[in-house]
Amino acid sequence: MPKEEFVLKGTSACPGCSASLALRYVLKAAGPDTVLIVPACCTSVVQGMYPNTAVNVPVVNVGFATAGASASGMSNALRALGKKTNVVVYAGDGGTLDIGIQALSGALERGTDFLYVCYDNEAYGNTGMQRSGGTPLGAKTTTTPLGKPEVKKDIERIVAAHEPPFMATACAAYPQDLFRKVKKALSIRGPSFIHVLAPCPPGWRYPTEKSVEIGKLAVKSGVWVLYEREYGQLAISSPSRTALKNPIPLEEYLAPQGRFAGIDPKTLDILKQRIAKNLQRLAREESGVC
Amino acid sequence: MLTVATGNKAVALAVKQAKPVVVAIYPITPQTEIVEQIAQYVSQGDLSARYIDVESEHSAMAACIGASMTGVRTFTATSSQGLLYMHEMTNWAAGARLPIVMANVNRAIGPGWNIWAEHTDAMQERDTGWLQVYVSTVQEAYDTTLMAFRIAEHNDVLLPVMVNLDGFLLSHVMQPLDTVEPADFIPPLHLPHTVDPKNPMGYGTLTGPDEYFKFRWDIERSMRDSLRVIEAAHKEFFQRFGRTYGFTEDYRCEDADVVVVSMGTLGKEVEVAVDNLRNEGIRAGSMRLRWFRPFPKLDLMNRDVVVIDRDYSFGFGGVLAHSIQAKNRTGVFSVIAGLGGQEVTYDDIAGFVKNRHIGREYWFGVSDNV
Ligand code: SF4
Questions:
Q1: What span, in angstroms and rounded, lies between the C-alpha atoms of B71 and A32?
Q2: Any idea what the Cα angle at residue A177 is, between residues A53 and A7, rounded to 5°?
Q3: How many CA atoms does the CB half-sphere of A67 hold within 13 Å?
Q4: Which of A128, A264, B187, B313 lies 20 to 30 Å from B272 when distance is taken between CA atoms?
Q5: Are B147 and B272 within one domain?
């Protein structure tokens, strides 16, 4: 991994923020000839305050609902000028799964040449942890004090339905895997999408030093499956391939997180069933059964 | 070259000649002909632009913003609901100081669904930092669209420009059109804040209470400077192409005792009404406002003023009437007419003049008012 840093010292991220860690790897992979497009999200604040910036590539802040559309305009203009500059969106789950889903869908459908990275901390972090479409079943947020009654929106299947040439999942707890996927995404023309699980200490209610550990537990329990899908061909990534041979119980992932404290057995059971179903679906797809 | 065209086609033709690099548009009646015509130009190779078929007007403006930040010329068009839908991003375009040009085909706002002419759509954009110009003929739509690029992209302006034309009454009406070769009337765009990876900067970064207002003032300063830039564009247009434009189009105003102020196609009806009134011995004049933002100084001293608004601000009044009252410190007779395509003839307008009550408001066609 290159030594050059594009996320500089002095960001205003919370201590232990894995979204900022992921951005660090994303930009290391993308390199200096990159424009970062950021809709309203934690990264709007994390990058620092005018007249300073803690990010060493151009950062274009755009309207909350517009990441996909703004990137479409930017990418088309740059290509028209004959420039190969990477256009990379860095958007939260709110800006991707909820308010920005229409613009994302449009950009994917139009074959826009760009990389969309959604860092998913499973709630509206910037406004103080309200429920989003990305919040999992049973998780407490400030607007679901009893735990979210609905399941997490499956953005990956929504994106997959647009058949982008490349899509993948990742997590900052696995930097090499994330780095490689960003490199690959940017080497392919057309739209690519990377869904990054972003453990968030204040939102998920765990101690700040545990972000990498929580990310690893997510993968080891199968809650988060690392994979990539290139031109429709699915491949489970090696950290998940290894972990899923002998997954840890879901409880080990949930226990350190205050947001799941006191989760009832029925909800726990549904979560387990859904993990099993997802793993089954991915396994079938990988082996070419479906 | 002499030809005939609709208002929509005239706009599309001017856009083709201005050679934008990115066009992002979403269809909406009565603007759709502009979308189709530009798509046609691009597919035939008559215009080498990137044409982005966006999935909404909100995204149309966002895509223009993204493109414009790379320093290229951009264009979009919309109408009514579409304009309201992109409202968040029209603010953003002006705040980001991007010289985007947009045609807005003025149309009423639902409910009920109404596709006919009204100016309330654009009036709701008046505080966004966009320059707004209203045209009344096919020729003027064409000429003004060409001027819009030059004005928006001028380094003392760098603000977006909205060219307004009345739905159906102009968008779909065929009139003679004399086209020109704009050549360097529209010089190449040099955006000083072009996004450049060799010089990484933050754009639209979090800006605190000790800095934010400076950017707002900067918009207003450019708005004020744009008065001079618009005037220069009018002058140069006349020198090159021989057609005269001003902030207003004045007709028989010099010796008028009563002046009717209006915008858009209504202004042409007013001119006929003025001729008829003069035949009856009433010294009337017509002042058709072209530029609504920046709002120019109007010469309305020592005469009666009748203002026709094809718009309304509920709980307040006709927007044009109140703007004139505030700017000119003069009483006016405020007529609300033509909403949602309501027919207004020159005889109706002559009636407004004869029955004027300075200081009052009159809703045309509604009996229980005045
Ligand atoms: S709220 Fe969470 S995602 Fe946002 S900056 Fe803090 S740790 Fe990072």
A1: 19
A2: 10
A3: 34
A4: B313
A5: no
- ipTM tops the 0.90 cut: yes
Q: Is residue B369 part of a domain?
A: no
Q: Which residue in the block uniquely carries the two structure tokens 């050679």?
A: B19
pLDDT tops 60 at residue B370:
no
Band of the pLDDT at A289, cuts 50, 70, 90?
A: confident
Taking the CA of residue A140 and the nearest CA in chain B, the distance in Å comes to 29
Q: Which two tokens stand for residue B145?
A: 């669209």
Do B154 and B179 fall into the same domain?
Answer: yes
pLDDT at B330: 86
> Within chain B, what is the greatest distance between any pair of CA atoms?
70
Cβ under 8 Å to A: B residues 197-216: 197, 199-208, 211
So what CATH class is A18-287?
A: alpha beta
Q: Does A53 touch chain B (CB under 8 A)?
A: yes
Instruction: Determine the structural domain holding residue B41 and report its residue range.
Output: 2-241
Q: Same structural domain for residues B320 and B237?
A: no
**Number of domains within chain B:** 2
Residues in contact with ligand 1 by the CB-under-6-Å rule are: A 13-14, 17, 19, 42, 46, 121, 125, 198, 200-203
Residue B258 and residue B169 share a domain: no
Domain boundary among B241, B256, B273: B241
Q: How far is CA A180 from CA A25, A157, A211, B69, B194, in A?
A: 10, 22, 21, 30, 30
Contact A73 B197 (CB under 8 A): no
Whether B18 and B133 map to the same domain: the answer is: yes
In this prediction the pTM is 0.97
Domain ranges for chain A, please list them. 18-287
B152 and B234 in one domain?
yes
Choose one of B188, B212, B241: the last residue of a domain: B241
Cβ within 8 Å of A, B 58-87 = 58-60, 62-70, 72, 74
A89: nearest Cα among A106, B51, A225: A106
Same domain for B105 and B77, yes or no, is yes
Tell me, yes or no, whether B343 lies in a domain: yes
Residues 6+ apart with CB under 8 A from B120: B108, B109, B310, B311, B312, B339
Spatial distance between the Cα atoms of B335 and B337, rounded to a whole number of angstroms: 6
CATH number of the CATH domain containing B138:
3.40.50.970
Mutate to test the interface with A, among B19, B89, B201, B205 (most CBs of A within 10 A): B205
Residue of B nearest to A6 (CA): B200
Tell me the chain B residues in contact with residue A62 when contact means C-beta distances shorter than 8 Å: 62, 65-66, 92, 204
How much is the average pLDDT of B86-98?
98
> What residues contact residue A256 under an 8 Å CB cut-off, 6+ apart?
A206, A210, A213, A214, A217
Q: What percent of chain B has pLDDT over 70?
A: 99
Q: Whose CA is nearest to atom 7 of ligand 1?
A: A17
Same domain (yes/no): B226, B253: no
Determine the pLDDT at residue A189: 97
**Ligand 1 centroid, distance to A11 Cα (angstroms):** 11
Q: Is B29 contained in some domain?
A: yes
pLDDT tens digit string along B170-199?
999 999 999 999 999 999 999 999 999 999
